[in-house]
Design a protein that fits this description.
Helices cover 3% and strands 46% of the residues. The chain is mostly beta strands. Strands 9-10-11-12-26-22-21-15 form an 8-stranded antiparallel sheet, with no helix packed on it. A 7-stranded antiparallel sheet has the order 6-14-24-23-20-16-17, with no helix packed on it. The protein has a 5-stranded antiparallel sheet with strand order 1-2-3-4-5, with no helix packed on it. A hairpin with a 6-residue loop joins strand 23 and strand 24. The longest helix has 6 residues. The protein is globular, with a radius of gyration of 19 Å.
């Protein structure tokens, strides 16, 4: 398998591209090591949400992700998604920025053999976060992560992938067997109720008493958006989206022991007139580190220790 790694440009920003015979993946090392573009070459299909215009919307550190950021592609959320205060010694009272620290700060980047190595350090917390990007095969982009705690104290965290995948009408969602319930984070129209409400998976009874198959993504004209987490830990580390027109399965794979939770946000035209879905494997649920800790569902890296995981984006090899 041939892998090419080369410098490129994304809008007005320097980028680094890794390419196989099937996939082109473009990263922004200076902006959170963001995966800004993911193209499946056999179909010339861009899989990540793109924003119009030639200028990238730069956000400051501790900025508002939605109001100030580009809101596209795939960002790493760490050490929380929602803004909250860290609770434990010796960093108690320290504010964790909106959508975490690392999406808005520079990462160092270097090409190593057939992979890209990206690394950054915490601003308000003493850690190093590294990411190695390579191709497991021509159709699978593999991102391996290592978190290193640079202090002698335990450090609690949530990491979540934050991809904005484009949708096709009629798209369907597939999850491992054995899932029974989901927990609502928000629902724009209140059809999934309020924060913390629980519904059966895959057939949910909505607020109006009707039923909906959550595996079927509704058309953009629905003008709705919602987010929910699978309740509890996943039975297996994968989720899959099927594109009906392209006949392309997009599958995320991750180690369920280290990344046991999954958030799902179908945006069916209800947010910013976009049609996309967020599939968010996470090391803790419920978007906030303090809430995940309350439920004893956060992750911890011990003092001087490390925590490793990966995220693979698997595209069809049949084309």
């Amino acid at each position: 398998m041939t892998t090419r790694i080369y410098t490129s440009a994304y809008k007005d920003q320097p980028a680094l591209t890794i390419e196989s015979s099937k996939v082109i993946a473009q990263f922004l090392p200076q902006i959170g090591a963001k995966l800004c573009s993911l193209i499946f070459k056999p179909l010339a299909l861009e899989l990540l949400m793109q924003r119009p215009g030639p200028t990238y919307r730069m956000a400051p550190y501790d900025g508002d992700y939605v109001e100030q950021g580009e809101c596209s592609g795939l960002d790493d959320m760490f050490p929380s998604i929602d803004r909250c205060y860290y609770e434990c010694y010796p960093w108690q009272g320290t504010l964790i920025p909106d959508h975490g620290e690392v999406w808005s700060i520079p990462w160092a980047a270097a090409a190593q053999d057939q992979q890209i190595h990206l690394v950054t350090h915490g601003v308000r917390f003493p850690y190093r976060l590294e990411k190695w990007v390579s191709f497991a095969n021509a159709s699978t982009l593999h991102m391996a992560y290592r978190l290193t705690n640079l202090s002698p104290y335990p450090f609690d965290f949530i990491w979540a992938a934050h991809p904005m995948f484009v949708l096709e009408e009629g798209a369907t969602l597939s999850l491992p067997g054995g899932i029974e319930k989901v927990v609502t984070m928000f629902s724009a129209s209140n059809r999934l109720g309020r924060y913390g409400d629980e519904h059966a998976w895959p057939i949910a009874t909505l607020a109006d008493g009707s039923q909906r198959d959550l595996r079927q993504i509704a058309p953009k004209r629905t003008r709705d958006a919602e987010k929910y987490y699978i309740k509890g830990k996943l039975p297996a580390g994968w989720c899959e989206l099927i594109y009906p027109q392209s006949k392309l399965p997009l599958r995320l794979e991750f180690p369920v022991e280290q990344v046991p939770y999954l958030g799902i946000l179908p945006n069916e035209g209800g947010w910013q007139d976009l049609y996309n879905i967020f599939l968010e494997p996470a090391t803790g649920p419920l978007d906030r580190l303090d809430v995940a800790r309350l439920h004893r569902q956060h992750s911890t890296v011990e003092g001087g220790g490390s925590y490793e995981w990966y995220l693979a984006i698997v595209l069809s090899a049949s084309h």
